[in-house]
Amino acid sequence: MTSISEVGGNRPPPRSWNWVGIVPFLVFSTAFLLGPAAILLVRSFQANEGGWTLLNYQQLTDPQVLEAYGLSVRISLVTAIIGGVFGFLMAWAVIYGGLPRPFRSLLTTFSGVASNFAGVPLAAAFIFTLGRIGLITALFGFFGVELYQSGFSLYNFWGLSVVYMFFQFPLMVLTITPALEGLKKEWKEASENLGATSWQYWRHVALPVLLPSILGTIILLFGNAFGAHATAYALTGGTLRLATILIGAQISGDVLQNQGLGYAVAMGMVVIMGVSIGIYTILQRRAERWLG
Amino acid sequence: MTVTAAPTAVETPAAVVTPAKAGTGSKVMAWLILLAGIAYFLTPLIATGERAFRAIGGTFSFEAFRRVVSDPEFLRTFGESAINAVLTIFVSLLVIVPTAYWVTLRVPKLRSVIEFITLLPFVIPAVVLVFGLIRMYSRPPLAILSTYGSTRVMLICAYAALSFPYMYRSVDNGLRAINVRTLTEAAQSLGAKWPTIIRRVIFPNLRVALLSGALLTFAIVIGELTIALYMGQHTFGPYMSNLVRNFVAEPAALTVLSFAMTWAAMGIISYLARRQPSSKPKKAV
Amino acid sequence: MSKEAHLKRKLILLLVFGLLVTACGGTAATTTAPATATTAGEAPATTAGGGTETTAAGAGGMEDLIAAAQAEGTLTTIALPRDWCNYGGVIDTFTEKYGLTYNGLAPDAGSADELEAIRANQGSTGPQAPDVVDIGLGFAEPAKEEGLLQPYMVSTWDSIPEDAKDPEGFWYGDYYGVLAFEVNADVVENVPQDWADLLNPEYNGAIALAGDPRVSAQAIAAVTAAGLANGGSLDDVAPGLEFFAQLAEAGNLVPVIAESGTVASGETPITIRWTYNALANRDANADIANIEVVVPASGRYAGVYVQGISAYAPQPNAAKLWMEFLYSDEGQNLWLDGYCHPIRYEDLVANNAVPQEKLDRLPDVEGAVFPTLEQIEAASEAITTQWDSVVGVNVGG
């Protein structure tokens, strides 16, 4: 392979103009994402009665708000990691696991649908399954095990996590597939020639190569869960106080609340997202360094 | 040394990449994983289906399904959403692929900034986005939201923005899997300019990544609710939500039907993606 | 090379074509009568054109109003579900009577979203800009103060009770209901008759509120009403919070939001909702479940909703016509069909404008109390801030 630092052959790249290439993206993002969302920033400094204030940001240190952030981050981490691991395994299984071929496209297309199966229908589906009068609950009851009496509940943190997996797994599957796909078969052959077992190949060759992509996809899953709102609301009726639900209550409620606070909380989420990307970028650089 | 480094066979890539012998140990594990996955995914769907079938009158019947399917609005709104989805995919691809390519190749320092922007849709509440869009484009000189049609275009652009996290990540993963610099160098040494490179070298090699991104985007658009609602668009999301508000019978049947239809649509997209005549040279150079 | 270039060209053409089609065509708005072009741009974009009159008489009489409305052609509303107070019937009768196209946005929107929609759509004439709003009483004054509403007094203005309208005509009460228990009698054997009954252990895991008390006016009202029955008053909601704390501790209250579907399916067999919602659900799901609606013997709490015309309504004459219709005997009776007590109820009854069988269908709401704006605000404040600490269902993981 040629040196990766050489670009463009003989022509020296006009350095200072490189950023022009992403102008279309910036324009589009500003027009349809950053522009409309600018109101978040502006309104977070406004008080209910009008006028400007920093009070909303001060309220971000309230235990209620901090707890909401903590809960959101926790559920996002948990579902991102578990979702990432099992999603990866599923993608591996259909690509390299020696399964019959149709399963590959079945999983792909199914993942497509399931990736956005969320909100009310998803919550309803799980209520039908594990709710108080759900199918599985009834099944357990048939065998004498009363799930809800013994402390199990769908309507708490772990119940919600289980529900979230329904769209986290498929998201991982679909997004990591291009990376898995791209593993050169020459590498596997070479490692086999050198006497490595399948496990060793994965541990020392494939996974390190895939690590940047895996990290990138996990942050995607993190963001996906972090911003999720409809499913949690549909399932727990807002009793599980995630940050997104807190925001919805302030901004869209049927009772006049403090909208400025809602926007401030949302800005806080933006910051958390930024920090997460920072952490992820550091991890990413480490991972890329291993690849040399 | 091939110009196209990624598995490029027109048939299912798995056939090319699977090592000659997937050991039995691997196979067993693969089956276990698959079965666990199937169990997890199918159970809620079966529970929903069960509810749909016995919804009316408590006995097994197709009544709930019949009620949903006999409403002409069901197909019409699905169709409108599907068209929106396809257009969104196009727009998203056009914006993201060149950008991801450029970031990887020319401005890697800006990567985190770009990634941050692409992840913003997750933390911007949908209501804030929709009202922000309406606000921005209701006043002169940008007052373009005056008809159903122009609002629909706005909707599609908003959806494209919403698809950024997924599209970008898929494309980025795809780009990492192919040696972008080498491909670019080789193409440039053959005299190709940037647009040609993107069109004839990058896009074809990103087939799998683009498919993933397209499927994810399609799913988002089909089910999207909040933005469509406040923009007064008569798409599938608002239709479903309207039905769900009121009756027990239809929602379960609606869920099953929309799941099935979306899955079919995914299958079509997937099939078309594989069938497209390969435009890149298949022979090693 | 050329084959592939052709493909690329085709794709671009397809994309451009697709965008053009969606931009120019739009699809038929099939939730309404045969759609004429939905460009409401024919009417002047602001309220300046023919929209400053504040009474029908001022606008040249009903006929002129009807003509002006029909020239505008469409009415855009927001947050009006068809099954709420029989809005479905109201809408159908209105559109048929006057031949206007009806465009209903976001049926599930909350009052805050309705006002946001007005704010955001300033200057817009498109189909996403609402003409009229139906909001909770607590939002009425803030909306007026912010300049989101324009004044209009319907011809039957005088028969609207004084304390249910703004003297300057910016907002006016439209209907009210009383909180009742909505019970799935197939699942629950002994239907509770009063608040105290709810504490009964037989209702373990059976009761759910129809909204989040930190957010939903209906749920907050439920808490206040419970308080009324337990020694509280419209100014003191602490007993209400106490009551729900007891319910939660006994395990009778579950942290799920109840709605029509969950009651009918038995998932949440008991909930507390406005009479009109409960009764409408009872009728709608009669073939699935046997639902009973019971107005509690004590602690009867009435809630008023309020109408207003957007200050930036793209179709102000259509909006005014709509108001005239809603407040006419015919409109008020249609609301009655939805089990809502129309605001002119007393007047209608006094003039024998209501058929007896409709009167009979209404539940007995004698003794219901109507909170004032201040009481609602105070109660909301107290309940939204104290719910977590007093009742707080612990769902942490």
Characterization of the model:
The complex is a heterotrimer of chains A (292), B (285) and C (397). Chain A has helices at residues 23-43, 55-58, 63-96, 102-115, 120-130, 135-142, 157-181, 185-193, 198-226, 230-236, 243-252, 259-291. Chain A is mainly α and 292 residues long. Chain B contains 13 helices and no strands. In chain B, helix 8 (180-189) packs across helix 9. Chain C is globular and about 60 Å long. The chains are: A mainly alpha (292), B mainly alpha (285), C alpha+beta (397). The interface between A and B is large, with 111 and 113 residues.
Sum up the structure in keywords:
heterotrimer; A: 292 residues; mainly alpha; 12 helices; globular; B: 285 residues; disordered N terminus
Q: In terms of topology, how is this protein built?
A:
The complex is a heterotrimer of chains A (292), B (285) and C (397).
Chain A: H1 23-43, H2 55-58, H3 63-96, H4 102-115, H5 120-130, H6 135-142, H7 157-181, H8 185-193, H9 198-226, H10 230-236, H11 243-252, H12 259-291
Helix pairs in contact in A: 3-7, 3-9, 4-7, 5-10, 7-9, 8-9, 9-12, 11-12
Chain B: H1 13-17, H2 24-53, H3 63-69, H4 72-105, H5 111-123, H6 126-136, H7 148-177, H8 180-189, H9 194-205, H10 207-223, H11 226-230, H12 236-246, H13 249-275
Helix pairs in contact in B: 2-13, 3-13, 4-7, 4-10, 4-12, 5-7, 7-10, 8-9, 10-13
Chain C: H1 2-24, H2 61-72, E1 74-78, H3 87-98, E2 101-105, H4 111-120, E3 132-136, H5 137-145, E4 149-150, E5 172-184, E6 207-209, H6 217-228, H7 238-250, H8 260-265, E7 270-274, H9 275-284, E8 291-294, E9 302-310, H10 316-326, H11 329-337, E10 341-342, H12 345-350, H13 356-361, H14 373-391
